[in-house]
Design brief:
α1 (24-37) packs parallel to α2 (52-61). The termini are close together. The chain has helices at 24-37, 52-61, 67-85, 94-101, 115-124, 148-154, 172-181, 192-197, and strands at 8-11, 18-19, 89-90, 106-110, 133-135, 165-169, 184-188, 204-206. The protein is built from eight helices and eight strands, in the order ββαααβαβαβαβαβαβ. It is globular and about 50 Å long. β7, α8 (192-197) and β8 form a beta-alpha-beta unit. It is α/β, with parallel strands linked by helices and 217 residues long. The strands form two sheets. The chain has a six-stranded parallel beta sheet, with helices on both faces. A two-stranded antiparallel sheet has the order 2-3.
Length: 217
C-alpha cells in the first residue's frame, strides 16, 4: 500500500478492533425462526447463506412484519450481542495503532450492533475516546452491507471528498458498504475468497493492525 493523505478512517468493531464472541450463527438462526414462524420469509429459505443483517432486512421488507414482531426480533439480536460482547478483548496492537492514527486522521466506528452496546464495549476496553463518533444500527436506514451507515458518517464532513476516506473491516459486508459509498476499503484478516464471491475488492488485505500505519501519512 502506498501512503496517502487520508482525513477519515472508519473502523468496523467486532473482529476488527475487538475480539468479540458474538455467536453470529445463533443470531441468524434466531432471526430466521422468528421470520419463518410469522410468514416473513419462506420456511425453506437457506438462512445459512445469508448474514444476520440480510435476514433482518428480508424481515423488515415483508408485509407480514409488525412493530411488535420487529421489536421481538431486535430483542433477540440484542441479547445475543450482549452475551457475545461480555468479556470481549482488544485485537492485538489496537491501542498503539489507534493512538498513532488519531494524530493523523479523524477516527470513526461503524457497527451493526446497537450503539449503546458498542459504547459499553469500547469504554470497557478503554478505546472509546479515540473516536469522533460511534455509529450503530440506530443511525442507519439499513444495516451493512448497505452503504447507509458509511454515508451517515460521510455527511458529518461534507467538505471532504470521498477520496479522503478509508474503511477498515474484517468482513465482506464492510467492504461492500465501503465500495457502494465510493470509499477505499482495507480488509483486516479478511477471507479473500469470500470477499471476491461478493464482488468486494479491497485496496489491501492486512494481517496486523500495525500494517495500517505506513499507509496513512
Amino acid at each position: 500500500m502506498n501512503a496517502h493523505r487520508a482525513k477519515g478512517i472508519i473502523f468496523d468493531m467486532d473482529n476488527t478492533l475487538l475480539k468479540s464472541r458474538i455467536n453470529f450463527a445463533e443470531m441468524k438462526r434466531a432471526v430466521f425462526r422468528l421470520l419463518a414462524e410469522h410468514g416473513c420469509c419462506q420456511p425453506d429459505l437457506d438462512w445459512t447463506s445469508h448474514t444476520a443483517s440480510q435476514l433482518i432486512e428480508i424481515g423488515r421488507q415483508s408485509a407480514q412484519m409488525t412493530q411488535a414482531l420487529e421489536e421481538k426480533m431486535w430483542a433477540a439480536v440484542t441479547e445475543i450481542e450482549k452475551e457475545g460482547m461480555h468479556g470481549a478483548v482488544l485485537e492485538e496492537h489496537a491501542v498503539e495503532v489507534l493512538e498513532e492514527l488519531r494524530q493523523r486522521c479523524s477516527l470513526y466506528i461503524l457497527t451493526n450492533n446497537a450503539r449503546a452496546a458498542a459504547m459499553e464495549a469500547l469504554q470497557r476496553t478503554g478505546i472509546a475516546h479515540f473516536f469522533a463518533d460511534v455509529v450503530g444500527r440506530e443511525q442507519m436506514a439499513e444495516l451493512k452491507p448497505s452503504p447507509s451507515g458509511v454515508r451517515c458518517i460521510l455527511r458529518q464532513q461534507r467538505e471532504w471528498p470521498v477520496e479522503a476516506w478509508t474503511m477498515v473491516g474484517d468482513s465482506w459486508i464492510d467492504g461492500k458498504a465501503a465500495q457502494d459509498a465510493g470509499i477505499r476499503f482495507v480488509a483486516y484478516q479478511g477471507k479473500e475468497g469470500e470477499m471476491a464471491n461478493h464482488g468486494v475488492h479491497p485496496l489491501a488485505t492486512i494481517q496486523s493492525l500495525r500494517e495500517l500505519l505506513p499507509y496513512f501519512s
